[in-house]
Write a structure and sequence with these properties.
Blueprint: H1 14-20, E1 30-37, E2 44-45, E3 53-55, H2 57-70, E4 74-80, H3 97-109, E5 114-119, H4 141-158, E6 162-165, H5 172-182, E7 189-196, H6 203-208, H7 230-241, E8 246-250, H8 256-262, E9 270-274, H9 276-287, H10 293-306, E10 311-314, H11 317-323
Helix pairs in contact: 2-3, 3-4, 4-5
Length: 324
């Protein structure tokens, strides 16, 4: 046919490529994880996560101010303290640094910022596990749920917009939703760490929150086995049934197949967490001159969104938003 004899091709320019690109990154779809440390007056660098710091309450406010200027309007807070006990009860105090940070951010910025808070116990326990231990030193699911309920109530009363239970306890979403509803905090959402894998990529995070796990770091009894995929689909289904408002796949880059499998069966917002190890590997390789930092960051985040994430928790949020 005639048109086969006259080959022509649309000239590929950046404008054309942007016009037809299937995946786009937007600052408002990033959530910045932030570490708020008790007892400090200025930001403290985290050695294994160059460029990331533990914030004071005041420096956290300044960080959020800068984020909002760049179009990033969501943060996930983690509390850091030297006051640890056996069951994490210290973190339930109304004057704990996490609750004070939430109150300060909401009082300063109101609904301009969407404040999420991690809800777990590992940062606050002497043993570093995500739950309360029984007499044998094993994480006890049901007593842990009681502590999660108390922490959820404390965070909700501080004004948090959404709690993010990350301990992977059975029925944690249902227990937290029940307590929040009982106290009238029906507008406090739940981001469920539904598909959280027992990964080697959490190492830098443990330095960031000063966690040392008693048995050397083994959480495979309650986090998911990285060899499994179908299990993630079941966990997502269960969390949605119990009242989750959003669900998460964690880590992100090594679990894009899981993210892509979850997407078609997930009718609610689906997030992915580009965790500390993913961050630190990119930073270390780029600092050594092995890769292009900017391009690698954008490519990694694009892959996560392309696989199905509606939003990405990433320590690069502020940096990449400035480019976008």
């Amino acid at each position: 046919m005639e048109y086969f004899r006259r080959p022509r091709r649309l000239r590929s320019t950046s404008s054309v490529r942007d016009l037809v690109a299937e995946t786009h990154l937007r600052p408002e779809h990033f959530i910045l994880p932030m570490f708020i440390r008790e007892g400090i007056d200025e930001p403290t660098p985290i050695a294994s996560m160059p460029g990331v710091v533990q914030h004071s309450v005041e420096s956290a406010k300044e960080e959020v101010r800068g984020l909002l200027d760049l179009g990033v309007n969501s943060v996930l807070l983690f509390g850091v303290t030297d006051h640890k006990d056996d069951d994490g009860s210290y973190a339930c105090r109304s004057d704990f640094v996490l609750q004070r940070s939430i109150s300060e951010l909401k009082a300063t910025f109101g609904d301009q910022v969407f404040v999420m808070s991690d809800l777990c116990l590992d940062e606050y326990t002497t043993h570093g596990h995500c739950g309360v231990l029984d007499a044998k030193g094993t994480v006890a699911n049901d007593p842990t749920l009681v502590r999660y309920q108390e922490l959820a109530e404390s965070l909700a009363r501080a004004g948090v917009d959404m709690v993010a239970p990350s301990g992977m306890m059975d029925h944690q979403v249902g227990a937290i939703r029940t307590r929040l509803d009982d106290i009238g905090a029906t507008d406090c959402g739940i981001l469920a760490y539904s598909a959280k894998y027992a990964s080697a990529l959490y190492g830098p995070f443990r330095e960031a929150v000063d966690v040392e796990i008693a048995d050397g770091g083994d959480r495979r009894a309650y986090q998911q086995d990285y060899r499994n995929q179908r299990e993630a689909l079941l966990e997502v289904e269960l969390d949605i049934a119990e009242g989750a408002d959003m669900v998460m796949v964690k880590p992100a880059s090594y679990y894009l197949d899981v993210l892509a499998r979850v997407r078609p069966v997930c009718p609610i917002p689906l997030l992915a967490y580009q965790v500390s190890g993913e961050y630190s590997m990119i930073v270390a390789a780029s600092n050594a001159g092995f890769i292009d930092r900017d391009q690698t960051i954008v490519e990694s985040l694009t892959a996560i969104v392309r696989a199905g994430a509606d939003g990405v928790l990433t320590y690069f949020a502020k940096e990449v938003a400035a480019w976008l």
